[in-house]
Design brief:
Elements (H helix, E strand, L loop, with lengths): L2 E5 L3 H13 L3 E5 L2 H10 L4 E4 L8 H11 L6 E4 L6 H6 L2 E3 L5 H23 L8
Parallel strand pairs: 1-2, 1-3, 3-4, 4-5
């Protein structure tokens, strides 16, 4: 399964995301801080990032760019956003969704992107194999 980094400012949502993803077999790292998220990404093999655009330190875009620099093979980043209109986020994120109480949508998207990310991790370890699309 995938190693998922969650950057979420709301503790209840972070707990819920962790529970859902852990139950699905994913290794989950959770933090409310972009600084801590950067440290986690530097010290762990992350496949997928779930980030709250409205984080308290307002650093989602910078964090996404940093993580893609630290771990360039990451091509599956999921961004739950209140509004998804900025071009820069669309360029950085493979998927987006509005926060909702229907977590089956989140599970489905994460499952798809986690599968893709794990394939890409394997391909990155064996560069003769092309990246998954």
């Amino acid at each position: 399964m995938a190693n998922v980094l969650i950057v979420e400012s709301y503790p209840n949502l972070a707990f819920l995301y962790r529970e859902i993803l852990s139950d699905d077999g994913h290794q989950v790292f959770v933090t409310p801080s972009c600084k801590e998220a950067k440290d986690i990404a530097q010290n762990n093999d992350i496949d997928l990032v779930l980030i709250d655009k409205s984080s308290p330190d307002n650093c989602a875009e910078k964090l996404l760019r940093t993580i893609k620099t630290i771990q360039p093979r990451i091509n599956a980043i999921l961004c739950p956003l209140d509004k998804f209109s900025q071009k820069s986020y669309r360029e950085l994120c493979d998927e987006s969704f509005l926060k909702t109480s229907n977590y089956s949508i989140l599970q489905e998207k994460i499952s798809e992107l986690a599968e893709k990310a794990v394939r890409n991790r394997k391909n990155f370890q064996n560069p003769s194999v092309p990246f998954a699309n």
